[in-house]
Every structure is written in structure tokens, then in C-alpha cells.
Amino acid sequence: MTTLEDDLRVALRDRAQRLRVPERPTLDGDADQLRRRPGSRWLIAAACLALIAAGVVALAQRQAGETEPARPVDSVVPETTVPDLPASSVVLETPGPAVNGWVALETGIDGDGDISLVRPGLEARRLEVAGSDTADDACPAWSPDGTQLSFGRLTGSSETAIGAAELVIVPVDPDGVASAPTVIGLDGWNVLDGFDPHPCAIWAPDNRWVAFAGGGEVWVVDTSGGEIRRLPDLRPSDLEWRPGTDELAIAGDMGRNREADTAYTPVAVYAVSTNELRSLGAVEAAHLTWSPDGSTLAYTRGENGPAELRLVDADGADDRLLVADTGAANHGIGPIWSPAGDRIAYQRICCGSAEGHEVVLVDVADGSETVIEPPETDGPDGPIRWYPYFVTWSPDGRTLLYAAWPRSEGGPASPERCCLVVVPADEPSESTVRDSNMTSGIYSHQWAATQMWGRQPG
Amino acid sequence: MIDQPRVDVGPSTGFDDFYAERWAHAFRLATLMTRDAEAGADIAQDVFAKMSRRWATIERPDAYLQRALTNASSNWRRNGRTAARKRHLLAVRDDAEMPPLDGLGDAVARLPFRQRAVVVLRYYADLSEVDIARALDCKPGTVKSLSARALATLAKEVER
Description:
Chain A has 458 residues and is mostly beta strands.
């Protein structure tokens, strides 16, 4: 008796053998005459280490307030520089007890996923949480008060069965040390075909409720009491809690699977206190972001909608255009309002690439734009451009954080080298590549993470 | 037997030999992932052309080839969506080079791209979980999940 796997091997090989292989075309070039250059991986690693050192210095300096006053910048190609100082000579600003400042990452591409924390001047380190040694963890998000971290966990996965999905809530002290976690089982959890199966939660302003989307429904979970509410018939491309309220804005439709176009839909607003959904006026969106005071919603539409960035009041009134053409974007990413409230960052495809994006900062007051082209570094095979998967703001609104992937000229992407790129919003020429050990699973999540940088309480 | 040796070609091997040995495999792999023989040939040719220019710096040619083919197939799928929607407007499309689908092959072809890629890389190319993760830009845990979902779907199809 054969198994399905045996049948698959036979069917695929049979099908492959029945393909009529076309004649091998003649390629131009004299590749055989090129001399092989040894140790290119070592050179890459050395370059990455040097860049990390640069990031450490730049971040530490920025945190210590040694930067120049901000000034407007138009269309800057950030360049990274390797400092003279080795990383070990960096003087750290010791974080006080009331400051978070940790950036939470997914790491560990060569094994199941882990959560790591990184902070200016410190090496990324794995967050030790009970159960993580045997589980696949991803999608970290900081609570608004910076005291708790949530992440999605898969356990017991195997070749033939999907493991159980859990939501893990763990208190983390100012030194980045985790306490005993609260683990909430998600019976019935499912995701749309083609997406990463981890639950990717976002925190409500009350530091208690979280929300995430599954395969055709939105889950709203009380992290204190474990209550789970499931909102059916929703496949949103974006979710965001309205600051200062218990309201969750839900927008868009991802379609049945990864291959479907992202569509825009009427925006629904769910209130935890009433357990009811209502429409936000006549607004239709695929991606959205709230202003930090919760008074205004900015939104864009999906792949087949107008490429506009629009604003609307929280009650659905005064729908107005901010940017007429935001271009195209992949990866399900949407605009992100800065914590300071003055700017909105969005991404658009650039540079003749099918996948590469640049970041545009829009001044909310007048709609003027500043383009931040993908940062470049030197690589062994020529310049390397770092394209963001997604972008998030630092809690103080001064710095952008890219989860970025590199592409060297003429070569394929190297997503296993997914890095953290730190881009000062007003000085993008000081951008630094910070950490090269992130995983690229973020690309597979249904929407972009926005709470990876812990906010300062109070 | 599949037509792909399991061991990377060594540094001393010339590009021409690598190209000659791997052309058929690359074409078949890209075609299985894209479900389109024409696209498979185009993708394989593009990937080999890039490899020829960078041959001196590629340390693991087979790993590079698999990843590049997977990336290019994914990009083709993404970029080709609009074209695919308008394909019926073309006068005649020659599908003669594609063999007819059978039950299981048909079910594989209907899988979402990433699940299909995992199945093809695992059961046609015999890649390990880690190598598939590298080729697909994801974690081994994601490969497990994608594989499990694909197998669950295929099992249901077989039962019908």
C-alpha cells in the first residue's frame, strides 16, 4: 500500500518526465573564464558585523541625544558608514526602570522561530520564555505600556498535522527579562491558505484586549481573563485599535488565499464594551491607520482601487484626499501614522523592482512628501539595497524601523539575511543596518507588524 | 529517477557543465511551480543567464539555482496575475507542451503557490525542510505548516 507522499513523488516525477524540455538556449557571457573568488560568504558576514557595529554606534548616539537638529530632506539615498570605533567601545545609556525601548524581533531561521529583543547598544538576545524551546514562536507585539509582550506560538507541528496555535502573553521587565507567561489556547484557529499560521495580535490601548485575524474571522481576546470573541465572515487586510478607545477598525478583504487580490471593503468598527460592529460612514478601505489622538483615520484601498491616501474623521465625516497617487505596494502593507501625529509613512514599489519598496513620508498638514529611497551598503558583489518588508515608527516618532531584505545588483534576493534597518526620519542618510538575524517570516503574515518597538510607559 | 544530483557542483566545475547538467531539471522545476511550460523555460533561462554573470561568486550553485527559480516563479506568478486574467483575450494559446493533468497532478496544480512550491520542492526536487525554507524565504516551521496544509488538501482530493 502506498502513501500519499509516495504517490506524490511518482505523480510529480512522471509529470516532469512528460514535459517536453525545450532546447537549451545559448547564453551570452564568458563565465568559465571568470576566476572564482573565495570566501564571499565570509566577506558578507564581515560586512554585516561591521554594519551592525555602525548601527550600535548610531543608535547609541541617537539615544544619547548627540544628533544634529532635524531638517527637511528630499529624496535621499541613505548610505551606511562603518565607524572607527569597535562595537565594544560603545558607551551605553543605561535604560531607567520606567523606560522600555526594546525592539522585539522574530529570529532563528535555521530552527523554529524564536522571539529576540534588541536595544540600542546591546546585542540581540533570545527572550527566554517557558515553552519556547520546543515551540515555533513569531509575531511579537508590545503592549502600549511596554510591560507585556504578546506573540503567536505553534506547538506540536509535524509533517502531516498542524500544531496547536496559542497566544502567549508574557510580562517583560525593563531589563528584558520575562516572567511566567499566560498561554491562551486558540481552539479552531485557522488562517487563509498561503499565510503564516501564527496568530499575530495587536494590542488595544487598554493593555488588556488584543485582536488578530484568522481564516475568515477576527479574534478578539481578553489577555487578562482569557475570554475569546470571534467575529465571523471577515478576512481583513488590516486591523487597528483606535487610540483612547476600545474600538477596533477592521478593513479590507484578503480573498480566499494568498494568490487573491487584496480588496477594499466598508470599514467596520468593533467596540469591546458593546460587543457590536458598526460601519464607519461610507468609508471603504484595505489598509488604515489612526492618528495618535484617535480623531482621524487615514486609509488606502486595495490592489484594484484608486492609489489614494485619504483622511476621514473618526465618525466617518469629512472624507478628504491627502495624496492623489501613492503608487503600488505589495506585502499587504499600509500607511502608518507617526506617534507625533505630524506625518504618515507609506511604502510604494520603486526602483524598477517588482518587489522592492521605498518609503514616503507625508506631511499631514499640507500633503507634501519626502521620499526615502532604500538604503544602500557596499557588498562583495556590488551595492546592496535594503528594501523594507514593513516599516514601524519608534515610540518618539523620530526614527523609522525597517524589517528589510537585501538585493544585490543582478542577484536574487537573500531573504535569510533579513535585517533591521534603522532610519532617522529626518536624517535618512544616517541609516544603519542593525541586526542580520531576523527571519523573513514576517513576509508571510497577513498584515504588517506595528508594535515591535516597545513604548515608554506613562 | 529524478534528474538532479543531490550534491552541489564544486567550485572547480565550469558554468557550462553546470548549465548542461541542470537545464532540464531547472525547466521542469519552474514549470511545475508555475504550471506553465513557457514561463518555466523563460524563468530557467533568465536564472541561468544571471548565474553565468555571477558564477565566480556563487558558492553553492544548486542552492542558488533552487532559490532563484523559486523566487522567479513566485514573481512570475505575482506579476502575471493581470496578464493571466487577460489571457483569454489572446487569439490562440499553445498549451501543447503541457502534458494533460492527472488526478493528483491536477490537485497539486490547484494548490496556492507556496503550498505548491513546498510540494514540488519536497517531492520532486527532494529538498530538505531547511533548504525549502531557504528557497521559499520562510522558516522551517512555516514549511511544515504549508506542507501539512497541502497534504491535507491533497488527501481530501484523493478521497473524492
